[in-house]
Amino acid sequence: MPRVNQICCIGAGYVGGPTCAVIALKCPHIRVTIVDLNQARIDAWNSPDFSLPIYEPGLEDVVRKARGRNLFFSTDVDKGIRDADLIFVSVNTPTKKSGVGAGFAADLNYVELATRRIAATATSSKIVVEKSTVPCRTAESMRTILDANSKPNARFDILSNPEFLAEGTAIDDLFAPDRVLIGSLQTQEGKEACAALSEVYQNWVPKERILTVGLWSSELSKLAANAMLAQRISSINALSAICEATGANIAEVAHSIGQDSRIGPKFLRASVGFGGSCFQKDILNLVYLSESLNLKEVAEYWKQVVTMNEYQKRRFSKRVVDTLFNTITGKRIAVLGFAFKADTGDTRESAAITLIRDFQQERALVNIYDPQVESNQIWADLNEASPDVPLAAIQRQVFICSSALEACKNAEAVIIATEWAEFKTIDWEAVYAGMNKPAFVFDGRLLVDADRLRSIGFKVTVIGRGERL
Ligand code: UDX
Ligand code: ADP
């Protein structure tokens, strides 16, 4: 069985960075090098004051312990590849924006470029591991590229080892994963490569949590897990619409159904809509796969999960307009939270982007506050969401604030778009004093104590709650 002494991770993003930093921490005998083409990103990973390029609780501590010991960050991709026994491919796989499958299929350009680089550079045999979420059978394409371009003496075994970490809890998820999934070809070499990777994880993960399966099952399991999780949120959000119309309370409904041990209590929090880099992308991937396999009904089934999510966002912004006497033109709206969930600075597919675009179209003035997201990221996202509107025009309508209190000043309404814990403990009396009256709060995350806010004087609207004011 090949032994892993050196690991290279291609891609220093949200997946590759934390995952390989934790591998380095837990395996001091393995040298781990994380490489990326993006110089600024690598510089940030190497920064003397540990201002890392991504915000993730616990990550800095891991990097402080391992960096310079057996964890290295570099832009020298070729050296990383040459030195490694095992290479993780953790590059981005966004949804295609043009061409065949646009809007649905994953853009595998980055995976392909990284794979070609491995083939062109490697002078000895390697285990190549797909870590990025990829469509089913991508490993086969990688094998074809590697086989067709490899140097003599360089043999490649390909494994699928999808990452199940969630942002915000990545370090805990990596320290104690529910399971580690490794897919391989069921050949002797495939099984040996699988055993070599399994040995790496066994440095801290109990053996019974390491599942070894066929390659295609592993690739599909990642898509399936995300699709099922997203489906739960769309289901509870669909029920939240019924609650609002009937006077039922979605928190009570979720609690009641979650007590059934077959359903379970997790992932039943109604919200303004799910975001993140994975859910929508993976479902659209599944839809594309189903369509290409001629499974029209299956494709339609999964597509509905995304349709419901879009509906939830639209429904929420409409409720804001309806409640504010059918117009928000010229009114100041404070949006608290821009990240797609709490404890991350990531904004990919964040519901806040859609809400703010809707408010812009209604010609409201929008104040935004998020504790982690950088201003240039907010401008880039809003610019992309409204391609027909010049950035300068957006910046006349939207303002980025440095505290929740500042964002709420002179506003007519406060929207809670991300469930940051600090929004629970802001000085709501001071917020109320600074707002125009009547002062409205719209809780899109079931976060605040609505009754307490009402006792201060706010008119509170909560997602999945019938009574309006
Ligand atoms: C997800 C998967 O959980 C993870 O296993 C996979 O590796 C990557 O995709 P992530 O996108 O980081 O992780 O975050 P997650 O916690 O799953 O939340 C996704 C979205 O769903 C967020 O916008 C979150 O706010 C929303 N959500 C989650 C709800 O609206 N309600 C819930 O009950 C749970
Ligand atoms: P994820 O959430 O999947 O980790 P990110 O976009 O955060 O996605 O990170 C992917 C990283 O992969 C980016 O920093 C990007 O620069 C890097 N990358 C993409 N293609 C290559 C490549 N061929 N070689 C090295 N790094 C790459």
From TrEMBL:
The keyword Aminoacyl-tRNA synthetase does not apply. This is UDP-glucose 6-dehydrogenase. Pathway: Nucleotide-sugar biosynthesis; UDP-alpha-D-glucuronate biosynthesis; UDP-alpha-D-glucuronate from UDP-alpha-D-glucose: step 1/1. GO terms for biological process: glycosaminoglycan biosynthetic process; UDP-glucuronate biosynthetic process. It comes from the Eukaryota. Gene3D superfamilies: Cytochrome c1, transmembrane anchor, C-terminal, NAD(P)-binding Rossmann-like Domain. One of its GO terms (cellular component) is nucleus. Its EC number is 1.1.1.22. It catalyses: UDP-alpha-D-glucose + 2 NAD(+) + H2O = UDP-alpha-D-glucuronate + 2 NADH + 3 H(+). The active site is at 278 (nucleophile). One of its GO terms (molecular function) is NAD binding. The keyword Cell inner membrane does not apply. NAD(+) binds at residues 11-16, 36, 41, 91-95, 132-133, 167, 278-281, 348. Belongs to the UDP-glucose/GDP-mannose dehydrogenase family. Keywords: NAD, Oxidoreductase. Residues 334-450 form the UDP-glucose/GDP-mannose dehydrogenase C-terminal domain.
